């Protein structure tokens, strides 16, 4: 008799613990009837009967999310994108624009931006005059005031 009762008691204890854990870990939106804490109390206070009630009455089925369609399965979307002929025309137009841009980049006669001086390079030598100074005729630099 003990050989039969001991495994049965262990099986009922395992069922009771499993039902407590299942009730505690399940999302509150899937509990039917009463709230989650009340179901936990029912399962804990009524060990086997509470577990059976939990699985039969309290545990709700998972609500299936509305099936979403991929864009290529949605006839409304497919009707809104236009015909293949429109897409081919757009592709041709874009390829022509890209070819024109490539042709502009490859044109060697096209004037480009002036080269920038390298950092740290000194300015080009040449005559410099300060504001208000008259240019010097002998080339040794600007002179102050006018000679007369």
List the helices and strands and how they pair.
Elements: H1 2-25, H2 36-45, H3 47-58, H4 75-80, H5 84-106, E1 133-134, E2 143-144
Antiparallel strand pairs: 1-2
Helix pairs in contact: 1-2, 1-3, 2-3
Structure in words:
It is a single chain. This protein has 148 residues and is mostly helical. The chain is 51% helix and 3% strand. The chain is built from five helices and two strands. A two-stranded antiparallel sheet has the order 1-2. A hairpin with an 8-residue loop joins strand 1 (133-134) and strand 2 (143-144). Helix 1 runs antiparallel to helix 2 (36-45), helix 1 packs across helix 3 and helix 2 (36-45) runs antiparallel to helix 3 (47-58). It is rod-shaped. The mean pLDDT is 75.
Number of helices: 5
Widest beta sheet: strand line-up: 1-2
The profile of the biggest β sheet is:
2 strands, antiparallel
The geometry reads as rod-shaped
Beta strand % = under 5%
Q: Calculate Rg over CA atoms.
A: 44 Å
Q: What structural class should be given to the helix and strand makeup?
A: mainly alpha
Uncertain parts:
none
Helix content: 40-55%
The N- to C-terminal Cα distance equals 139 Å
Please provide the ordered H/E string of secondary-structure elements.
HHHHHEE
Q: How many strand segments?
A: 2
**Overall pLDDT:** 75
Features:
single chain, 148 residues, mainly alpha, two-stranded antiparallel ribbon, 5 helices, 3% strand
């Amino acid at each position: 008799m003990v050989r039969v009762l001991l495994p049965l008691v262990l099986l009922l204890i395992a069922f009771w613990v499993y039902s407590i854990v299942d009730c505690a870990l399940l999302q509150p939106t899937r509990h039917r009837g009463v709230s989650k804490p009340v179901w936990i109390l029912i399962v804990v206070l009524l060990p086997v009967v509470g577990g059976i009630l939990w699985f039969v009455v309290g545990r709700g089925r998972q609500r299936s999310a509305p099936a979403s369609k991929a864009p290529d399965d949605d006839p409304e979307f497919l009707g809104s994108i236009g015909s293949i002929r429109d897409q081919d025309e757009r592709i041709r137009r874009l390829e022509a624009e890209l070819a024109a841009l490539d042709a502009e980049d490859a044109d060697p006669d096209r004037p480009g931006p002036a080269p920038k001086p390298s950092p740290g390079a000194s300015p080009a030598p040449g005559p410099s005059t300060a504001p208000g100074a008259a240019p010097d005729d002998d080339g040794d630099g600007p002179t102050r005031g006018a000679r007369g």
